[in-house]
Amino acid sequence: MLISGVDDGFFPLSYKGGKGKSPLVVTLFEDLAFKDVNLGFITVDGSDAKEAFCKINWGVTTIFDGVTFAGFNYIIPDKNYIIFYGYRPNVAKVKLALDKHFHDDREEKIISILERLVRIESRWGPVYLYTDLDLTLARNLIDKYQVLSKYPEPIRYAHVIGKALGHWHARC
């Protein structure tokens, strides 16, 4: 079975407010074997993450490391997805930050997902999901890919690659 993971990368605080770009990384796994990676760049606090994701994804079941990327850029997936959180986000604080900095529809979209996260018990402790998959299938996929930590390997790899790429990009 093919599965992918999505995460962003490091960006300096000076990039906030649309002043810079951050990596968006999509990994591809076949069972537990890392197969490939696709890279894109998205505007920090922008609204281009979904468009960038659509250009670099493989169209397989995808685990997203949250719904927001590069600050408050966001991806609302269409199908075959698991939005994963290793902890329950503080919805009130997220809402406050969105109210303060943005005057568009992103607050409604982001908060809608955060309010509907489902807590599941994994072998590494509680995690929180929003998915269009059957919840049992989603739980089984999370358990299968939790090898070294509560973060499934596809998003853990995307995180490591994104962090390194982001640091490199910030220095160029």
Quick take:
The chain is of the alpha+beta class. Helices cover 34% and strands 31% of the residues.
Q: What is the C-level CATH assignment?
A: Alpha Beta
**Which structural class do the helices and strands define?**
alpha+beta
Largest sheet: 7 strands, mixed
Provide the succession of SSEs: EEEHEEEEHHEEHH
Q: Note the total helix count.
A: 5
Uncertain spans, ≥5 residues at pLDDT below 50? none
Radius of gyration, CA atoms, in whole angstroms:
15 Å
Mean pLDDT: 96
CATH architecture: 2-Layer Sandwich
Report the CATH superfamily: archaeoglobus fulgidus dsm 4304 superfamily
Strand order of the largest sheet: 3-2-1-4-7-9-8
Q: Into which percentage range does the β-strand content fall?
A: 25-35%
Reported by name, the CATH topology is archaeoglobus fulgidus dsm 4304 fold
Family: Belongs to the UPF0215 family.
Pfam family, one: Endo_dU
Protein name: UPF0215 protein Mcup_0002
Properties at a glance:
172 residues; alpha+beta; archaeoglobus fulgidus dsm 4304 fold; 7-stranded mixed sheet; 5 helices; 9 strands; 34% helix; 31% strand
Walk me through the topology.
Layout: E1 2-8, E2 21-30, E3 33-43, H1 49-56, E4 61-65, E5 68-69, E6 73-74, E7 81-85, H2 91-101, H3 106-114, E8 118-122, E9 125-131, H4 135-145, H5 153-171
Parallel strand pairs: 1-4, 4-7
Antiparallel strand pairs: 1-2, 2-3, 5-6, 7-9, 8-9
